[in-house]
Amino acid sequence: MEQETKSEKKMKKSLIASLMESGASPLRPPPFKEDTYHHQNLKPSEKKALADLKDMLHSTSNFQESMWGIPLTMTSESEKSDVILLKFLRAREFKVQETFNMLLKCLSWRKDFGTDFIVDEDLGFKELEGVVAYMNGFDREGHPVCYNAYGIFKNHEMYDKIFGDDEKLQKFLRWRVQVLERGIKMLQFKPGGVNSIIQVTDLKDMPKRELRVASNHILSLFQDNYPEMVACKIFINVPWYFSMLYSIFSPFLTQRTRSKFVISKEGNVAETLYKYIRPEDIPVQYGGLSRPGELTSGPVKPASEFTVKGGERVNIQIEGIEGGASIAWDLVVGGWDLEYSAEFVPNDVGSYTIAVEKTRKMTVTDKAVHNSFTAKEAGKLILSINNTASSKRKVAAYRYLVQKSVV
């Protein structure tokens, strides 16, 4: 995360500033282009700043520190260590002394906080895992994706349980750092590689005033100790007032900061996320096909994407199903609000069509369809999506797996 300007610091106490530093808008600036960290792409002044910073580290008595398992002064890991040092330099606008001070302070914090061992700790937040903050899959360019959703804390009992006093808050912050450290372990730290993560923040039902203190703490921790670790910040289910306030405050943000933001109103979540993340890697609650535990059960089967135009009916035909074979399928349409059905049509003209799933209205809150069927005879499965009652175009995805009968 980059260094704040004076204007940004003034806004830090507000909720909006806290959220921004931690989408799709037609006025969105050109997308953020992540640094390649190739030396040939650095300006002469930036190369000199890197060399000066390395000299300062080497000249520091008994300096043998490392970050994320990468020694900062060992020539054998120079490419990886340079990526880390360049992140800190970028955060301090390549001012060497300020970068050196930031780096030493961060190393001291990491030692005191015990970040090198935090990933394996059991912090007792099982009810928050996969709900509040969690890593889930990758974007289309290979960046690990971290999802954040704080709507659960609109429940006062849950809020008091997690944030009831300073000790609880500190424990939560430790858990939040643990989630981020898990994501960082997936990074490559090499020039031209995947060196940052994507953040998706769900603002639905988020208790604004209550979480201001926690938001500011998280913001400060990440700004001071994880510079340039986020390539893109996607805000989904954005309320109208957030969009209005963002339009007011955005002129005070740097072009680089604004380019990292994607703002998506409620109802456009799936359409926005599909631009950055494949459907099979998007959680089902956001219009994708990813379910809890799926990522640990082997490689994820890719999905096929398509669109359903307003006033259109789409039939997906899965042919070549043999008698005795079983077929399992997943299907989702972003923002549903249409009719769906599934039927099996035997090849034998004398056989009857089977209504596997009767026609039903799918609401905006429905998650992906996940079903299976065993065919007694050869035929085809037809998945029907009826959007004729709507004028809105919608993104959609499906995948299937056919297993032949084992005799």
UniProtKB/TrEMBL annotation:
An example Gene Ontology cellular component term from the record? membrane
Q: Where can this protein be found?
A: Cytoplasm; Membrane
Q: Where is the GOLD domain?
A: 270-404
| Annotated region described as Disordered, given as residue ranges | 1-41
Q: Which residues form the CRAL-TRIO domain?
A: 120-294
> Which SUPFAM superfamilies is this protein grouped with?
CRAL/TRIO domain, CRAL/TRIO N-terminal domain, Supernatant protein factor (SPF), C-terminal domain
So which domain of life are we looking at?
Answer: Eukaryota
* PANTHER family according to UniProt: PATELLIN-1, PATELLIN-6
The protein's name is CRAL-TRIO domain-containing protein
- Source species of the chain: Lactuca sativa (Garden lettuce)
